[in-house]
Each structure stands twice: as C-alpha cells, then as structure tokens.
Amino acid sequence: MIIRSGSTSVAAFKLRWIGALLLASAMVISGCSDSDSDSESGGGPPVSDPATTTAPPSPSTGPDPASPPAPAEAPSGEARVVVSPKGVVLPVKGREGGGYRVETPCANSAVVRGATPVVGVPVVLDVGHGGDEEGAKGPNGLTEKVVNLAVAGYARAALQRQGTPAVLTRTGDYRMTLGARAEVALALRPRAYVSIHHNSVPDGPRAGPGTETFYQLGSAGSKRLAGLIYEEVVNALSNYRVAWVADRDAGAKYRPNSRGGDYYAILRQAGSVTAVLAELAFISNPPEADLLARAEVQQVEGEAVARGILRFLNSDAPGSGYVTPYPRDEPAGPGGGSSGCVDPPL
After folding, report:
1. pLDDT tens for residues 300-312?
2. Alpha-carbon dihedral angle through residues 237, 243, 244, 245, given to the nearest 10 degrees
3. What whole-number distance in Å separates Cα of residue 223 and Cα of residue 275?
4. 93-109 tens-digit pLDDT
5. Any idea what DSSP says for residue 104?
C-alpha cells in the first residue's frame, strides 16, 4: 500500500531468521507518496505472532547470512553508501573523525565508524513501511511491513543466485523517510530501483491477481521494468486458485499528480534512476492475506520480482499488462515523513 509525499505526516514477527536475513541483506554491502505530502503504503500480523511467522530464504536457497557475497569495496574516501555495524544501509555525506557522516533512516545526521562501504550494486530494493508505520493490515493480523521485508529478502536472494548483487533500503523493523530511501538510490545509481508493497481497498472481484505496478512518467525504461515485473508476478500468483480482488485498472500504469509529475514520491524523488513501485497483491483481501502469511508464497512473489528485474537487465523484452489508469482523487495513506521518527541503533 502506498503513501503520500511532501508533508511530515506519518504510516515483525519475532524471528531470529529475519534478523539474520536482514543483516545479510545489508552486508552485501530493501514507499511511495503523492505529490503534496509524505506517506507510504502498508499491510500483516504483529511481528510477534508465531501463527503467521514467515521465514526468509534459508542458506540452502539463498546466500549464507553469515558470509554474504559483497560488492567491490569503494576506494578510501569515495563511498557513497555504507552499511553500519548494526546492518543499517546509510547514504554517506562525507568523512569525519575516522568515520562517515551519514544520513540516518529518519533523515538525521550522524557519524558511524567501522561501517562497510558499498559500490557496484545494480539493484536497490525498497522495502515499504517499517516501525510504527505498518502499512496495510490483513484481516488475519498480517502487516504489510512484515510481508514487504520477507518478499524483498527472497527477491534479493534470487538476484544474488544469478550473480546480481542487490541492496535493501530497510533491513529491519524501523521507520525510514521517503527522502532517506531516495538518497540510497541516488547515491548508488542502480540500474533498477523497485519499491515493494502490498495493497488494500480494491474496487472489487477479479478473475486473477490484481497486481499493480507504477512507472515513472516519461521513462521508457521504468515502463518496461513495470511491465516485466507485472508479467512475472501475475504469472506466478495465477497458480493459486483464490477469490482475487483488484482495482478496475489493475496492470502496469502511471499516476500523475496535480502538476503533471509522478504522484508517488518514491518514483518522483528517484530522479533519473529507473524506478518502479509494485503493489503485488491485496493484503486486505482475506484469501490473499492467508496466502501472504505463507513463507512459500512470499518466496514465489520475491522470485517473480527478481525474474522481472533480471529480464529488464538482460533482455529487450517489452513486458505486458499496460493499461490507461482511471483518474484518482483520493490520497494515498499517511507516512514517510520524519515527524515522530526514531532512528534504529546504528
């Protein structure tokens, strides 16, 4: 589910494996909003609910969390992004006192020492929501922030198995502003920047998955990436026979703001970086929420996202599912700003 951009308005399973996966994701070194206010998208069960606990890629199907493959280390003084000793991905503003002056997830300034520089990463996966901005929530208690993180972890593992390093913007259960997310992408300049979300408030029933991918206006690359991710996710989820729901214009599409630019800040603030916002399924729909609570379905989604990205990077495939969206006046959900944001330990 998505959020608005521009204002300061605001949007876990207790699993040891999630901590390991997320730290691994960071050591390889994953919001959206409208044009006028900061906000994100959201939706899953409380982090501590064992009944809906989900698992990240295991060492047998993904990189070893203890020693993940890392991109080439940046030359001294040239790092644009680092991973803190606690596994938090941070854009670098400069060197200071033997450490790095960084922008924190809550858009504050801090100095970290002992951080690992990151360079040469072609894919950044933005993990929507986090902390007290849970995103959308399923009738089974499943929160979007939890599902987004698990799916992004599976996507990253699938990319790395194919030799394509990827970084997550958010590696744990903490808040992160839209601007801080964009700073990671702008610093790394990846070939693909994909924000992972799950949706709520559909228009009604649909014969198949109601997946939506949003691309940047005026960007042929973003449009193609959106079409490829849409194609792969819909093909993968169509193997499940459930009562799907959707918006009437489900597909690969754009959403303009009142000034003719991109409505969602996650796309707008990415600048010239090729970016896509993906709403993979409707967590607010009971049968879909039950699917999303299953680790194997999260893996199916993550691997589908990875296939779409790999096809974008390695082929000229055009993608599919392109639609003309109907006009929307309702704002996205709140969140994505710095008001009330508390940084995680760095």
Report:
1. 999 999 999 999 9
2. -170
3. 9
4. 999 989 999 999 999 99
5. -
pTM value?
0.81
Cα 155 from Cα 240, distance rounded (Å): 19
Let me know: does 263 contact 41? Beta carbons within 8 Å: no
Q: Where are the beta strands (DSSP E) in the chain?
A: 81-83, 89-96, 99-103, 109-112, 116-118, 123-127, 166-168, 192-199, 204-205, 212-215, 245-246, 251-253, 275-282
Cβ burial of 141 (10 Å; 0-12, 13-18, 19+) is middle
pLDDT for the residue numbered 1: 63
Q: Give the residue from 191, 176, 180 showing the smallest Cα distance to 276.
A: 191
What domains sit in the chain, N to C, each tagged with a CATH number? 16-71+119-314 (3.40.630.40)
Q: Which residues face 143 on adjacent strands?
A: 137
Cα separation, 11 vs 135, whole angstroms: 6
Q: What is the pLDDT of residue 329?
A: 84
Report helix angle 295-314 to 220-237, nearest 10: 150
Burial class (CB in 10 A: 0-12, 13-18, 19+), 16: exposed
Terminal-residue alpha carbon distance, the chain: 27
Specify which residues 278 forms β-bridges with: 196, 213
SS3 of residue 136 by DSSP: strand
Residue 62 has pLDDT above 60, yes or no: no
Residues 332, 264: Cα–Cα separation, whole Å: 9
Q: What is the chain's mean pLDDT, rounded?
A: 83
Question: Which residues lie below 8 Å from residue 324, measured CB to CB, with a gap of 6+?
Answer: 249, 253
Six-digit token pair at 227? 């079409």
